[in-house]
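Fill in residues.
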């Protein structure tokens, strides 16, 4: 059930986390355990992706970027690099034209299509920066732009960002401000209603989408 409060400064309604403290603690334990198992199980796939990225242009295989996580604290997110080096030199840019963005490398396009570029985020889950399910973490630059349109973004700081999310499945890749605002509403709905059952549903759908090659 939604708990409504008024922020004295912003006069914005406040949405409380729908998951109990017990649920949150159990979710963290399960996330950490599952991430460790996945890191070990998929280590050969990690090695394959690492070598493939490295061999294409000789650049670093791991891409690091600062994102904003729980409590509004910055953290470093890890991915297999899918773009050419210095692709985002200067002002941050969103992925354009989906998997046809000219900044993508050949291997990067394949990794993105099959979501293999996000495998290193298992480490983010293991160390507690992220969860398997939660709002996708955003860069501070875009958060400021979103908050100019909708100041409710700060409510998402209550929970860890996720590798996959309700919004990702139903809103796709956010390449426009309009999609970012729609994603925010999906994320707030998830915050209010999240549960183990909802998380399992999101994980199952994410797995099926990847297996059957659905683009999202």
């Amino acid at each position: 059930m939604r708990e409504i409060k008024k922020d004295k400064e912003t006069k914005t309604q406040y949405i409380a986390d729908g998951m109990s403290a017990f649920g949150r603690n159990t979710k963290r334990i399960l996330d950490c355990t599952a991430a460790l198992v996945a890191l070990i199980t998929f280590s050969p796939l990690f090695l394959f992706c690492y070598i493939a990225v490295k061999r294409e242009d000789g650049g670093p295989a791991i891409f690091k970027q600062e994102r904003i996580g729980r409590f509004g604290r910055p953290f470093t997110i890890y991915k297999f690099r899918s773009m050419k080096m210095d692709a985002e030199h200067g002002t941050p840019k969103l992925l354009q034209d989906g998997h046809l963005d000219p900044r993508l490398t050949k291997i990067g396009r394949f990794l993105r299509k099959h979501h293999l570029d996000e495998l290193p985020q298992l480490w983010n889950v293991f160390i507690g920066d992220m969860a398997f399910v939660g709002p996708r973490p955003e860069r501070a630059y875009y958060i400021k732009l979103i908050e100019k349109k909708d100041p409710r973004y700060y409510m998402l700081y209550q929970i860890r960002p996720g590798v996959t999310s309700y919004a990702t499945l139903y809103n796709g890749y956010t390449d426009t401000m309009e999609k970012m605002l729609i994603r925010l509403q999906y994320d707030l709905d998830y915050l209010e209603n999240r549960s183990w059952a909802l998380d399992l549903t999101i994980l199952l759908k994410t797995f099926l989408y990847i297996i059957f090659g659905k683009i999202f």
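The first strand starts at residue 4 and ends at 6.
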